[in-house]
Specification:
With 422 residues, this protein is of the alpha/beta class. Helices cover 27% and strands 24% of the residues. It is built from twelve helices and 21 strands.
């Protein structure tokens, strides 16, 4: 491992929990559409609009031309931009939870950025040219903010790591082992503890079924036939099904027995989630205390089609060297990467996902309302804002996946040189 981690003086750096105060939320401006004609830009604008009153928004853009385009869009949509900042950072995708800057904070309020290796969520090798751009995003952010960088050659994405801010991290064993096939579980755990100064790591077995890697093969549809693809999903990121909402409280997705009896995807999810529930019930935090676990419903399975010209379809058509080779036809069926747990927590607000639209079954609306009610209960004092993030969901992730928090620091970072803002 490359070890540039140095504790200056007596400072110890940690990863603050997401529910702690933030300086800013980072976004990477989209460069392609997951599905042709269904742009993710409106979702980005909605996120910026809802965040701006409460936290700075830092946008990574490609060049001045794109920056000016974003400024025009904000003006057209009458979105206040006094808290929006722009950083020229090359990036190939929008998933800033995974390959964006990961901030560590010291006891004295100083910050560092972590730079992991990157292999496109296990769909490629770290040596691939298409991984190189996104791997350097943290380095660019550190350059702009004049922060030191903690580097590791281990592959890992932020969407598979949940922290309580007190020294405990939860991750998915299947994901981290797949990313680092040359490492043992013990070596992976040791490296995580080194980078994040952790006291304890809890390992869950698998993520949800519809987050399985596309190269694992197709999932069973409503008719029981395996003809449903996952849209280049992560292989089981934790932020799709399990989240810390306080140092001692977790939200964990649940697939109900009734759903499992009529839906093969829900049936597999129930097995996986109950296995993870059993693990968490028997685990303790860094101080030896049990967790409070609150169950959150799983959204109904939603499906869509893609064909040539759609970003996700065209990527799958390359037939990655691992695993299944897919039938390249005019269209393929996909499952939406839907989750009520892929929310973003920040200062005074929670950006949540909802799925019901006029014409859809009432049970989808009922689940949306149930999920929002749970979020309101576990985040008292924060405004819960539901967002239709379907264009993002079609790419294999959600609101949490495309955002990354920068913790509030002391002294305030405002004294550092920063790019221009409008």
């Amino acid at each position: 491992m490359t070890d540039t981690y140095v504790k200056p003086g007596n400072e110890t750096y940690r990863f603050p929990a997401e529910f702690e105060p933030h300086e800013a939320i980072w976004l990477g401006w989209p460069i392609y559409e997951n599905k042709k004609g269904l742009s993710t830009v409106p979702v980005m604008l909605k996120i910026i609009k809802e965040l701006a009153p409460y936290v700075k928004v830092k946008i990574a853009h490609q060049d001045d031309e794109e920056k000016n385009k974003i400024i025009r869009l904000l003006k057209e949509k009458q979105i206040p931009s006094s808290h929006v900042y722009f950083y020229a950072i090359p990036h190939a995708d929008i998933w800033f939870r995974d390959m964006g800057p990961i901030f560590l904070k010291s006891d004295n309020g100083n910050l560092k950025i972590v730079k992991f290796n990157f292999n496109m969520w296990g769909y490629n090798d770290t040596s691939a040219e298409e991984c190189a751009v996104d791997r350097e995003v943290p380095q660019w952010a550190a350059k702009w903010l004049k922060l030191d960088v903690v580097t590791t050659e281990m592959v890992s994405e932020g969407g598979d790591r949940e922290y309580n801010g007190k020294g405990t991290m939860i991750a998915v064993k299947a994901v981290e082992m797949q990313r680092n096939m040359g490492m043992t579980g013990e070596e992976i755990e040791t490296e995580f503890k080194r980078v994040f100064q952790l006291k304890k790591i809890i390992w869950l077995e698998q993520g949800i079924y519809e987050d399985d890697h596309t190269f694992m093969g197709q999932l069973p549809g409503p008719d029981g036939i395996k003809n449903i693809c996952t849209p280049l999903c992560t292989g089981g990121h934790i932020d799709e099904f399990c989240r810390f909402v306080s140092p001692d409280t977790l939200l964990l997705a649940e697939a109900a027995e009734e759903e499992a009896s009529r839906d093969l995807i829900a049936s597999e999810n129930r097995k996986r989630l109950e296995t993870n529930f059993a693990i968490l019930k028997n685990e303790k935090d860094q101080d030896g205390n049990p967790f409070k676990i609150i169950r959150m419903p799983m959204p109904e399975s939603l499906f869509f089609t893609m064909g040539p010209g759609d970003g996700i379809y065209d990527t799958i058509a390359k037939n990655y060297k691992y695993g299944a080779v897919f039938p390249i036809e005019n269209e393929l069926k996909f499952i939406v990467a839907a989750s009520y747990l892929n929310f973003l927590v920040t200062n005074k607000v929670v950006l949540a996902q909802h799925y019901w639209k006029p014409g859809l079954p009432k049970r989808i609306k009922d689940k949306d309302e149930q999920a929002l009610k749970i979020l309101s209960a576990v985040f008292p004092g924060r405004k819960i804002i539901p967002i239709d993030a379907m264009p993002v969901n079609l790419g294999g992730g959600g609101i949490h996946c495309i955002t990354q928090q920068e913790p509030a620091a002391s002294p305030y970072l405002g004294g550092l040189p920063r790019p221009s803002r409008r």
